[in-house]
């Protein structure tokens, strides 16, 4: 257990330790490779590759979710906030 760390849901990780991050400038999804730390089935610690406040895809199985896709983010409060 580590307190006060940046973490993502483990289910949001793709092969190679990547996530799809929303780029607000281009309004597209960009694949980002993370450097990760402690992990379990629920969460994975992020050591590098994301910053607090970055928005990532949590539902990888949704139709059309892929790198480069033009998106409109859903509103919601991130878990843990």
Which range does the strand content fall in? 25-35%
- What best-fitting shape do the alpha-carbon axes yield? globular
Main sheet, how many strands, which sense, barrel? 3 strands, antiparallel
Helix count, DSSP H or I runs of 4 or more residues = 0
The helix-and-strand class reads: mainly beta
Percent helix among the residues? under 10%
Mean pLDDT: 90
Strand elements, count: 5
Strand order of the largest sheet: 1-5-4
User: What is the first-to-last residue Cα distance?
Assistant: 18 Å
Low-pLDDT runs = none
Question: How large is the radius of gyration?
Answer: 12 Å
Secondary-structure element sequence? EEEEE
Concise account of the structure shown:
This protein is an all-beta fold.
Account of the protein in words:
The protein has 81 residues and is an all-beta fold. It has strands spanning 7-9, 18-23, 28-33, 35-39, 43-48. The protein has no helices and five strands. A three-stranded antiparallel β-sheet has the order 1-5-4, with no helix packed on it.
Key terms:
single chain; 81 residues; mainly beta; 3-stranded antiparallel β-sheet; two-stranded antiparallel ribbon; 0% helix; globular
Task: Present the secondary structure layout.
Elements: E1 7-9, E2 18-23, E3 28-33, E4 35-39, E5 43-48
Antiparallel strand pairs: 1-5, 2-3, 4-5
């Amino acid at each position: 257990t580590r307190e006060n760390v940046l973490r993502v849901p483990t289910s949001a990780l793709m092969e190679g330790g990547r996530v799809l991050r929303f780029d607000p400038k281009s309004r597209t999804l960009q694949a980002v490779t993370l450097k990760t730390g402690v992990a379990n089935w629920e969460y994975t610690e992020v050591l590098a590759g994301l910053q607090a406040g970055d928005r990532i895809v949590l539902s990888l199985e949704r139709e059309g979710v892929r790198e480069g896709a033009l998106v409109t983010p859903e509103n919601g409060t991130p878990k843990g906030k």
